[in-house]
Known about the structure:
This protein has 527 residues and is of the alpha+beta class.
Amino acid sequence: MGETRVDLLHLLEDLRDAYPGSIEETILTEIIANALDSGATQIMCECDPAQSTLMTVDNGSGMRRRELARYHDIAATTKTRGQGIGFAGVGIKLGLLVCEEVMTETRRGKSHVATSWRLASRHRAPWKWVPPVGLVTERGTAVRLKFHNALSPLLDPGFLEASLRRHFQPLLDPTFDEFLAAHYPRGVAIHVNGRQLEKHRWMAPLQGPLEIRLMRKRKASAFGCLIREEIPLPEEQRGLAISTYGKVIRRGWDWLGLTPSAPDLVGGLIEVPQLAACLTLNKGDFIRAGARGATYLAFRKAIQEAVSKQLAAWGDARESTEDARPREVRPLQRDLVHVLEDLAEEFPLLASLVERRAGGQKKLPLGSSGRVTEPHAFVAASVLEQAEADKTVEEVKESQAGASADGQGVAEPVHTRPEQDHGLLLPGQGGVRKPAHYGLDIQFEDRPEDLELGRLVESTVWVNRLHPAYRRALASRSIGYHIALAVAMALAPLAVDPTNEHGFVMAFLSRWGAVLDQPGSRKGTKR
Length: 527
């Protein structure tokens, strides 16, 4: 009988490389994330350069003996997807790469146990039970890492504080206390070498809140703020950061697909707890396919709109590039609006790509009973509570037009919800601007080695211009059909399971062709 063997060293190195930051930051953030998942309200970090050790102690739920034994298995976890931000104790396991010993002590009820762990060879990581040394008093878990390198950054208190503030910014900003109270009712205090990290509010000359509500609920589903400085921000603070349960997942402008005219002056942060269920395996990005992908794309589109409105109020929005697009795309994109609305009835996950127009979101199917059959698929249906606010905005536009027409006047902000003021300036409304596009977008790229006609990235289908089929379609004047087929094949992984992709493509092309029979289509228009 054979036996499955695992190259532990290779596996741990692959896990290390799956994270965007350094291994030191990964170890620290994963340990803190696991402490938060255990319900800790106090987290203490103590580094001792003389002994080359870093110790973290939390007052979370702790582990029983059986759970601690299982904790040494790779990818073993008792967590439920969407209810945490740590991944199966990966931070501790990656510690084996840089430590000569990993000691873990945990206490829960009458169970008070400890283990010592090390990487002995490529295939062996032995651990053993050791007597507890008293790092945990009542309950919780303590981890002590003894490093090979006496100059490890994890032995520097300054590095610890900077990393914690960067990766757990919402927990250290009082602006988010009220919003995170539902998940952390007793708050979270983090200490470094006996000193509690103070909470600092992100201050800037211009600030605007970002608030997203689902299904017209009174409580916001996402909350944050956008700031604009007069001088360039540090590199690590530029762009919008998105976090879940207090842990920053992405930062910058690339993930949002929206860039202001002065990107080095604008930063921000938005907390979206519901996206914890959409995290990838390494908790460093979001899934973009299937039901979880639809939820992420819907939130992303809502965030795009909120950020775009705030940037426009500041006069910091980029000009629309719609006029520079290929001529054959524009009529096809107009048809896609109707196609996606129709397909959303049969394939609800496409609802995250349905265009939201001025005056409210397009009505999506709710089923015969009036209830949403797939709640996560209709996140985009009413992500922003702007229907009532739009009327107020329209009333003040005329009075503001004179002040903003010359580009010099600054409009007073419109306070639509004064009872929910968080100490930030609410978004103002500038002059008339071109409507932004938040639905499915079509762009072109050159990928000569790619066999796919197109690919879906966030809410944009990128059509491969160097594909032989594209060149043939261009020569035979059938480029519109080629683009429609590329869009259908790119949307299939989001809309259905892999086994049903052929049926989705056929349904898409059928609806696309039927658009010509609809009143007001391009079939009867004059050219």
